[in-house]
Design goal:
The protein is α/β, with parallel strands linked by helices. Helices cover about 35% and strands about 10% of the residues. It has a single domain (about 1-245), classed as Glycoside hydrolase/deacetylase (TIM Barrel, Alpha-Beta Barrel), CATH 3.20.20. It is built from 9 helices and 8 strands. Helix 3 (about 85-105) packs parallel to helix 4 (about 125-130) and helix 6 packs parallel to helix 8 (about 220-235).
Length: about 250
C-alpha cells in the first residue's frame, strides 16, 4: 500500500493503531495473518517523513513481523527513468528514506522488495538502490499490461507475465508480479482464484495485492481486501513476505 504516514502526526500518545487505516490493517492481520508493506514518499503534499514522530517506534518494531515500510520515491514528480535524475541522486533518496524508517520504526521494519513510483527505474538506478546497507533485493512489478517496467526488456517482461517472477543472472534483483490494484478490481477474490489456477506449476508463487492509502479509507476497498484475504487463507495460501517466501 502506498502511504505518506502524515496522519500519524495528529495521533496522540504512542499507540499508532488508533489511526484508522493502521488499526484496520492490524485487525485484519490478527484475523488472517496478512502481512503489509507500506511504500513511502519522502515528501508529498507538504508532508515529509521527518514529520513522522519516533514515539511509535516500539509499536512498529514489535509489529515488524507483519508490517514493514519501504521506499517508493522522493516525491510524486521525481523521474528515475532514462531522462531522469542521476543514479547517485536516486541512491541518496533511498538512503534518506531508509534512515527515516529506521528512526521511527526500527531496522527490522524495512521492506527491501518495494514498489517504485510509476514502476520506473533504469538499470543504473536499480543497481544504485541495491548498493546501500539495506538496499533492495527485489521490486514489485506492474499490475497491468504497460509496455515498460523498470529496466526489463520485452523478453524479460514477457517472462515475468508468464512465470509471475523474473530474476536474471547477475542482476541481484527479483521482479515479482502484482495483482490488479484493489480500487480497480471489483472481485479480487475471484482474481486470486484465477491466479492460483494459472500458477499451479513449479513454485513458489507469491500473490501481491495493492492499493493506495486514500482508497483504503473507504468501505469498498476495505470490503474487497477482506474478502480476498479471507478467501486466500481459507484455501490454504500462506501469508508471508515475498523475499522470504521466494527464498524458502
Amino acid at each position: 500500500m502506498l502511504t505518506t504516514l502524515a496522519s500519524l502526526r495528529d495521533v496522540p500518545g504512542d499507540d499508532p493503531w488508533v489511526q484508522p487505516e493502521l488499526g484496520f490493517l492490524r485487525a485484519l492481520h490478527r484475523r488472517t495473518g496478512i502481512v503489509v508493506g507500506l511504500y513511502l514518499f519522502e515528501r508529498h503534499d507538504g508532508n515529509e517523513l521527518e514529520d513522522v514522530p519516533d514515539r511509535f517506534k516500539p509499536a512498529f518494531a514489535e509489529a515488524s513481523v507483519w508490517l514493514r515500510f519501504g521506499f517508493h520515491a522522493r516525491d510524486p514528480v521525481v523521474d528515475y527513468g532514462p531522462d531522469g535524475v542521476e543514479a547517485s541522486v536516486a541512491r541518496r533518496d533511498y538512503e534518506r528514506t531508509v534512515a527515516a524508517i529506521e528512526r521511527f520504526a526500527g531496522a527490522a521494519s524495512l521492506d527491501r522488495m518495494p514498489r517504485l513510483h510509476r514502476f520506473v527505474a533504469r538499470a543504473e538506478v536499480v543497481r544504485a538502490l541495491r548498493e546501500p546497507r539495506g538496499g533492495i533485493v527485489g521490486l514489485l512489478a506492474p499490475d497491468d499490461d504497460r509496455a515498460e517496467a523498470y529496466d526489463l526488456g520485452k523478453d524479460e517482461r514477457d517472462a515475468l507475465r508468464v512465470e509471475g517472477r523474473w530474476s536474471g543472472a547477475g542482476r541481484g534483483v527479483t521482479y515479482l508480479e502484482s495483482l490488479p490494484r484493489l480500487e480497480r478490481d471489483p472481485d479480487p477474490a475471484a482474481t486470486l482464484a484465477r491466479w492460483r489456477q494459472e500458477r499451479r506449476g513449479a513454485g513458489p508463487h507469491v500473490a501481491c495485492l495493492f492499493t493506495h492509502e486514500p482508497d483504503l479509507r473507504g468501505r469498498l476497498v476495505r470490503a474487497r481486501i477482506e474478502r480476498a484475504v479471507t478467501w486466500a487463507v481459507g484455501t490454504g495460501m500462506r501469508p508471508g513476505w515475498p523475499a522470504e517466501l521466494l527464498a524458502s
